[in-house]
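Re-run with default settings, no changes from the original entry. Doing this only to confirm the output is reproducible before filing.
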Amino acid sequence: MSAQTEISGSGAPVGALVFLRGGKDADFAEIHSSLLQQDGVKAGVPLFGDWNIMLRLAAKDRESLKRIIEERIRPVKGVEDFEAHYGEEAWTASGGDAEYKAAACAVLDVDSGSLAALTAQLRSMAGITEGNVTNGGKKMVLFLRGNSSSEIRNFLGDEVRPLPGVLRIKLLNAMNI
């Protein structure tokens, strides 16, 4: 089972974020190492929670991204499920160069009608180091830093959740981002 959004091909270099779940007896270190050696895989981050690994992909076009996922990621031994988020817009927010002890990633379901205003607000928030608009403007993937996991959870609940246009937040704690 996978969640993939149809996307229009623009021919410009594109990226995707792919969240992977391994099976019960999967060797996550081996899966992670194997995937990092695949063409098109630019980075990988171990996660805690519903997903075990997040990959950053890049390719010359969206069809190439789909081929990377289907031919080089899906068949890897131990990969049980995945969810792909195809990039629409990527941005770096004002997270700064401060040292942080905790990292996380959050997948937001958003109201696409509020996307421009929501993106502008999120870009100005300390603690968000990067954001990606995905799935035709229906989702955003945020990369967060804080001094603790609870600080990140509180930030999402107190600062991000009340923003107009945020429909749902799914937090994924990371080992490092």
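Residues 9-87 form a domain with the Alpha-Beta Plaits fold (CATH 3.30.70.920). The beta strands are 2-3, 14-22, 41-48, 53-59, 79-91, 102-110, 128-134, 139-146, 166-174.
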